[in-house]
Amino acid sequence: MEQQIQIGWQGRFYEDFEVGDKIAHALGRTISQTDNSWFTQLTQNTNPIHFDHHYAKQTEFQKAIVNSAFTIALVTGQSVSDISQNVMANLGWDEVRLPHPVFEGDTIYSYTEILSKRESAKRNNVGIIEVKTTGYNQDGQIVIHFKRTMMIYKKGYAPNIMKPLIDQVISQDGK
């Protein structure tokens, strides 16, 4: 009996989203001093509150705070496997709010709520969804929330990532 290859999770397609759904993202991430310093330097952010601990001790926070661009990048990234794995294009981020600072050593988790969905007026292979993603720390404090609008492929239209290649590899492996 020949075994079937089971393809792993490939993300949601436009048809899979329902307005009102709330999707908790599986992975949290603890932010290190190195994460914060490297991201800050990579993006040429010169504010010393992100990398100079002596300076940061003199602020009301008493310690370095995480670069907010890192926070939005991390929380967006946490949502990809559930929300935008099959995105054709991001159309925008709106209403970005940072109600509580993120500190080195914090662990960030997130979830996304589906706000709206509609057919694309110009493309029959995608639909448009709007979501609100919320990030929170290990103490349950909301540290970021934002809206994001995306064009998501419909089933049968996304580029095929794995199937042709896996069949080829398996056929070679059995020889």
CATH architecture name = Roll
Number of domains: 1
Structural class: alpha+beta
Largest sheet: 6 strands, antiparallel
Looking at the structure, the CATH topology is Thiol Ester Dehydrase, Chain A
Keywords:
alpha+beta; MCH/BMMD; Thiol Ester Dehydrase, Chain A; six-stranded antiparallel β-sheet; MaoC-like_dom; Acyl dehydratase
Notes on the protein architecture:
It comes from Solibacillus silvestris (strain StLB046) (Bacillus silvestris). The protein has about 180 residues and is an alpha+beta fold. It has one domain (about 15-175): Hotdog Thioesterase (Thiol Ester Dehydrase, Chain A). The protein is about 25% helix and about 30% strand. The chain is built from 4 helices and 6 strands; from the N terminus they run ββαααββββα. It has helices at about 35-40, 55, 70-85, 165-175; strands at about 20-25, 30, 85-95, 105-120, 125-135, 140-155. Strands 1, 2, 3, 4, 5 and 6 form a 6-stranded antiparallel sheet that branches. A hairpin with a 6-residue loop joins strand 4 and strand 5 (about 125-135). The longest helix is centred in the middle third of the chain and has 17 residues, at about 70-85. It is globular, with a radius of gyration of 20 Å. The model has no long low-confidence stretch (mean pLDDT about 90).
